[in-house]
TrEMBL record:
The keyword Ion transport does not apply. Pathway: Carbohydrate degradation; pentose phosphate pathway. Residues 1-16 form the signal peptide. It comes from Clupea harengus (Atlantic herring). The gene is h6pd. Residues 564-786 form the Glucosamine/galactosamine-6-phosphate isomerase domain. PANTHER family: GDH_6PGL ENDOPLASMIC BIFUNCTIONAL PROTEIN (PTHR23429:SF7), GLUCOSE-6-PHOSPHATE 1-DEHYDROGENASE G6PD (PTHR23429). GO terms for cellular component: endoplasmic reticulum. The lineage of its organism: Eukaryota, Metazoa, Chordata, Craniata, Vertebrata. This is GDH/6PGL endoplasmic bifunctional protein isoform X3. GO terms for biological process: glucose metabolic process; pentose-phosphate shunt, oxidative branch. InterPro entries: 6-phosphogluconolactonase_DevB (IPR005900), G6P_DH (IPR001282), G6P_DH_AS (IPR019796), G6P_DH_C (IPR022675), G6P_DH_NAD-bd (IPR022674), Glc/Gal-6P_isomerase (IPR006148), NAD(P)-bd_dom_sf (IPR036291), NagB/RpiA_transferase-like (IPR037171). Residues 229-517 form the Glucose-6-phosphate dehydrogenase C-terminal domain. The keyword Membrane does not apply.
Length: 796
């Protein structure tokens, strides 16, 4: 057996709870770190990633740390036999560049030693991994070396992770106290379920602290300094890093290249899964999370990231705009051997607006944008601030210019990584002593502003992301890696949007400068839309008959019909019109809402498009409620709160939940909850006549919580009563027919194909309240309007 050559490497000095060296949380040395031999195994060692980045990262680490305490050996693993893989590996290793601070003479010696430390091994079967494990053990015994640990870098497709992890665990796990670290490359699944499945499979072979899920964006020099910048300038940022001062955040990654050569991967994933769910989302968490007390404490960082995910508003189809460069489909047909009639819906461009419920950033849009074949290659995160200064004469004054902080990740007009702060904001401190201030600036404009308007700092020495991350893996630093919890939280956030967009046709764009403003989009409420109409369609589609909003009669009352989207828009318009009319008359608008899923689309329409709705003079009441605590998911009030009330500015005392829980009991007759609510109505609502009552209809004909067979005749003039539902939870509280029929206006909303049979049945029957309670809704002095979508009305 070839005798191993000793190489000296890296004394671990990381101060973190997640650093697996011999230091405590405060960075104080507990004692000498365990020194010894480290075996590095790169699986997939001759692939593109290994060729471009990984071996350069390992060589840089070796070259910079020779003589500092550790010996090691490198193994390049692959599916090819040794005879074929060895020359490929050494061709790659010989081409590695030395770091800029290493002289040519020393570089030659370091490279020679690096090559002598390396060997290729076929890693294809269980027996291959057993042989590798035995080889490492034999080498350690022959050389009399103490083992520090083993580092496996899996530069292979994700579907192979579970099998390789299992083989590493069975055959290559180091004995005793030596550590095992396994690096995994994205993608970590393609949705929430696949990510969970992969996490479960890996957890059966590896411990969480043995896995290093790498997102190379976290190793970018600027990205890695976002938290240090925020902490180092916390006194200056404290008063402005919030919704009162921040206008918007933009996180952008633009590419000029197409997807050629990656189509087999890219067409399965698209731009959102490829870079937005991971790279841009990680940057978003760094900008919005609470700054940890200890910047190297991965546990605190992970907790703070999870808080960010838990506060994000759920995304759906209107949250995104999609594009696809025009030649993409022909590339798919060529590389995947598809026929000429095959059309791919995978987007190559996406613009997404994210919002959060975090009080600090509530209402601040966060734009995540990425695409291929765009006008420039650039990555940045830009925070633009509101400017409340008015310059009466000199509009060019520095105080009137835009205020922004830019984390410029690289490429683009600057061509170097940098952090830029507008001079009319503050002068920032340097993030660390490895950075320098840029004093001399040329006439370059960044976002239309000359560089002289910014304070600029940049790394003294530029370093590739993989070099930094490989160093951190070796040192056991986990603060720039993705935890299982954070990964699953991210997929949980993104999967609903991805599902909603599965059948969406992306807007075609020509690519490069020719895109013009074709991909520009604007924010409308929480929705985003392209600013201009598309000039062409991706796929010629047959013309379909289009129905406008129609008015007619249903059960002798007025009826409005349309497709669901237009119907909800019309109902929201009519509701606002009724509210404005009430306010103009000098009376509050008293709105009673029923439970169920039908009103959710209406709530969304109101919150995102009806900013002029007079909420300040509106009272929201409940038409019915389930007898459950108001914070439970089954509560009608919880639904109305989550989808409407928390998104509008409604005075606190104008919200009237039904008192189903009194004396720590639910809907007990003796507690008088129904009477309490009735008294509130009589006290606040003129003549106990609501301005507007919105109802739905169940499949059994019930409305509010007035069910078939309920005997409310004995309630007399009561406005509120306890009722029984045939479904759990059985106990309910509801407005009575008397209360509803006193209203000035009652609307009944029915949507969906599933309600077609019900709508047909109701159109044929007479008033039979015992069997069909909805038929007793007949306002005495008010107006009844049915809002029925075409799916429910026509069954098609």
């Amino acid at each position: 057996m070839r005798k191993a050559t000793w190489g000296l490497l890296l004394l671990l000095t990381c101060a973190a709870t997640c650093d697996q060296s011999g230091q405590n949380q405060d960075g104080e040395q507990k004692g000498p770190s365990r020194r010894g031999h480290v075996s590095v195994v790169v699986v997939g060692s001759t692939g593109d990633l290994a060729k471009k980045y990984l071996w350069q990262g390992f060589f840089n680490l070796y070259a910079s740390q020779v003589g500092k305490g550790y010996s090691f050996s490198f193994y390049g693993g692959g599916l090819s036999p040794d005879g074929r893989g060895t020359p490929l590996l050494f061709e790659i290793l010989k081409s590695q560049d030395c770091p800029v601070d290493v002289s040519d003479e020393r570089c030659a010696l370091v490279r020679e030693q690096f090559l002598r430390l390396a060997q290729y091994r076929q890693l294809k079967t269980e027996e291959d991994y057993q042989a590798l494990g035995q080889h490492i053990e034999t080498q350690l015994k022959q050389e009399g070396m103490v083992e520090a640990g083993r580092l496996f870098y899996l530069s292979v497709p994700a579907f192979a992770y579970a099998d390789i992890a299992q083989r590493v665990n069975r055959s290559c796990r180091p004995p005793g106290t030596a550590w095992l670290r396994v690096v995994l490359e994205k993608p970590f699944g393609h949705d929430s379920n696949s990510a969970q499945e992969l996490a479960t499979q890996l957890a059966s072979s590896l411990k969480e602290d043995e896995m290093f899920r790498i997102d190379h964006y976290l190793g970018k020099q600027v990205v890695s300094q976002i938290l240090p910048f925020r902490k180092g300038n916390r006194k200056l940022l404290k008063s402005i890093w919030n919704k009162h001062h921040i206008d918007r955040m933009e996180i952008v990654l633009k590419e000029t290249l197409d997807a050629k050569g990656r189509i087999s991967f890219y067409d399965q994933y698209g731009v959102i899964r490829d870079v937005i769910q991971n790279h841009l989302t990680e940057v978003m968490t760094l900008l919005t999370m609470s700054v940890p007390k200890n910047l190297t404490d991965c546990k605190e960082i992970n907790r703070n990231k999870l808080k960010v995910f838990s506060a994000l508003h759920q995304l759906d189809m209107p949250s995104a705009v999609l594009g696809q460069y025009q030649t993409y489909n022909s590339e798919v047909q060529l590389e995947l051997n598809k026929t000429k009639d095959h059309f791919s819906l995978s987007p190559t461009y996406a613009g997404i607006a994210v919002h959060t419920t975090m009080p600090q950033f509530d209402g601040v849009p966060i734009f995540l944008v990425s695409g291929k074949l765009l006008d420039e290659r650039v990555g940045y995160a830009r925070i633009t601030f509101k400017n409340n200064v008015f310059c009466a004469q000199d509009q060019t004054s520095i105080t009137c210019r835009p205020k922004q902080i830019v984390f410029y990740i690289g490429q683009g007009q600057l061509q170097y990584p940098a952090i830029l702060v507008s001079k009319n904001l503050f002068k920032p401190a340097l993030v660390n002593n490895g950075w320098k201030e840029v004093i001399e600036n040329d006439d370059t404009l960044l976002f239309g502003i000359p560089l002289s308007d910014y304070y600029i700092q940049t790394p003294v020495v530029q370093q590739e992301a993989y070099t930094e991350l490989i160093s951190q893996v070796f040192r056991g630093r986990r603060d720039h890696f993705v935890s299982a919890e954070s990964l699953l939280a991210s997929w949980k956030f993104w999967t609903p949007l991805l599902n909603s967009l599965k059948h969406t046709f992306p807007r075609p764009y020509p690519g490069g400068a020719a895109n013009g403003n074709l991909l520009d989009f604007q924010l409308q409420g929480r929705e985003v839309r392209f600013c201009s109409e598309a000039l062409v369609n991706m796929i010629p589609q047959e013309k379909t008959e289009s129905f406008q909003v129609m008015q007619g009669k249903y059960r002798s009352a007025d009826m409005v019909s349309a497709w669901s989207k237009e119907l909800v828009e019309r109902l929201a318009h009519d509701l606002q019109e009724a509210a404005e009319e009430s306010v103009q008359e000098g009376t509050p608008f008293h709105l009673a809402l029923s439970g169920g899923s039908s009103p959710l689309a209406l709530f969304k329409q109101l919150t995102q498009h009806h900013y002029a709705f007079p909420w300040w003079n509106t009272h929201v009441w409940m038409a019915d409620e389930r007898c459950v605590p108001p914070n439970e998911a089954e509560s009608n009030f919880r639904t109305i709160h989550d989808h409407l009330l928390q998104h509008v500015h409604l005075p606190y005392f104008n919200i009237h939940p039904m008192p189903v829980q009194l004396n720590q009991r639910l809907c007990v007759e003796e507690d008088g909850g129904a009477l309490v609510y009735e008294q509130d109505i009589a006290r606040l609502v003129n003549s106990s006549s609501f301005s507007y009552v919105l109802l739905g209809v169940g499949f059994d004909g019930h409305t509010a919580s007035l069910f078939p067979g309920n005997r409310l005749g004995s309630s007399g003039e009561r406005l509120v009563a306890l009722t029984e539902s045939p479904l759990k939870p059985h106990q309910r509280m509801s407005l009575t027919f008397g209360a509803i029929n006193r209203a000035r206006r009652v609307s009944v909303l029915i949507m969906g194909k599933g309600k077609h049979e019900l709508v047909t049945q109701l159109s044929r029957i007479k008033d039979t309240p015992d069997r069909w309670p909805i038929t007793k809704i007949q306002p005495v002095n008010g107006r009844l309007v049915w809002y029925i979508d075409y799916d429910a009305l026509l069954g098609q």
